Fold:
Amino acid sequence: MTSPALARPRWRDLPGDLAAALLKGGVGQLHLVGIAEMALAAMNTPEGSAYGPAGLFALGADALCAAWEADPLDGRTAGQLAALHKARPFLPTPVFRVAELLAALDAPPPEAEVRQLVQLLQQRDADASCRLLDRQRRAQPGNTFWLRQAMVVGMTEARHQWLDAWLAGLPSGLRDGGGVPAPVVAALRGDVAFARGDMAGAAALYAAACKALPLVTWRVRHAESLYRAGDRDAALALWRAAADARPWQVNLLLRLDDVARGRDLPGDLPAGRGAVLFYTWNKAECIDEALASVAASDLGDARVVVLDNGCTDATPEVLARWAERTPNRPGGSLGERLLTVTLPLNIGAPAARNWLLTLPEVRACDWVAFLDDDATVPPDWLRLFGASMAAHPAANVHGCRVVDHAVPMLLQSVDLHLDPGGDMAAAPENAPGYRRRFSVSDLHLQELDFGQFSYQRPCVSVTGCCHLFRRAVFDAVGPFDLRYAPSQYDDLEHDLRRSLRGDLPVYQGHLAVRHMKRTGRSAWTDPAQFSNAWANMYKLQYRYARPGFDTLRQHDHAALLEDVEARGF
Structure:
């Protein structure tokens, strides 16, 4: 909790870069630190005069507090927060004392020790990572650096029991004698309970943490736990209190408003004739699971069309089984609803999508939904898209929240927004002069999923993993661009092409689709895949001149501003 001077933002009075950053999102530790720096730097500038130095300080200071709350064991951010408070007091005394204490407890070890852990994490060797961390816990029991790394490993690798045992086993001296304070331990254990689906347990732990140290982030997570446990009214009350304390945090405002309006609930099925479209290549087990989830969902009268993109594995047999009329088959049956198209070779993703769009059965549709062959959907996925279409009737494209199939708290994609261009940090050293003209927001990669991206709103792009289109949009703007074959960025390019015309997609974050492809690491270790991905990104960066990307950012910002103002924020 911060200064009472913090008030509801006057979005149009904020400096342009600060307003753009706030509207993209109010989460993500790195993003929040950037917001804090921008707000504090603008205090005595002409651009900040309309908002006023007091308001900018309150905003910047609270953004820094939110950045620390996102990762309270991070000593660097805790130290920045404590230093700002010493220069200009704004924190409640208990919050300042905890931040100052945790800043002192985080002692980064020698680089060699850190490098060993990084190597194990890159290898995805969770067992070895846990063993290394256990050794460091015994060797350096008072160093929260290792506890922080344990939180990362335990949460991202679903080692919940191991992590909770670590937290529960902290000696009492660590809680009360200069170590991790009890409210922080309770909140961290709340995170673990949340991750393993124990929402009642998570709510109790967050409540205990907030009682001792009333941080806004813990209150928001307490509300989300209650919501997922089925207590909407209690969740709304907590979200409202949190929004009063942190009225600039857009994700919180959108979450509160959507649930209050019932926008989180499934609606009617999309109107008209529809088709669910897959293209697949040598992922027999994955496409089997994907089709099982679709067969178990409410499809209405929609067709299911699968393009066998030259598969040489067991995919043809899998598709043949799904076409059989076997009502007693576990997961249901697709029967005559399923249409299979078989090609003699793999033509790549853009061409496969376009081939599906040319089929007479698809051209006759009012809407089409593309699904990846390694993505699974919940039973009400089309009704959630129907709700999004009803709330945004002018939108031609709708996307969703994509999470890791094995660890759903790992976010893979949410609503994407354009960031300014600059030097391409990931460009190969032998490519001088290559400067990105844009990048897409990565706030979802900075945090785990505690519900902060569960809302509806416009954006500049949504993921192609689960994409619903009004079919007529392809007549207006054309098919997917074959230059981005075999599979990188053709969906993003199509979104940008439409968004440049002012036809922005809508993100339906109340729909979570689980994606089996966990990371793109293979593309960065295999030279052929890396070179193709890099080349396709190069083509996309230079697809439009810089004024085109400026127009895209303007359309994006205008849509976000219109959305928050229409909601009364």
Summary: The two ends are 20 Å apart (CA to CA).
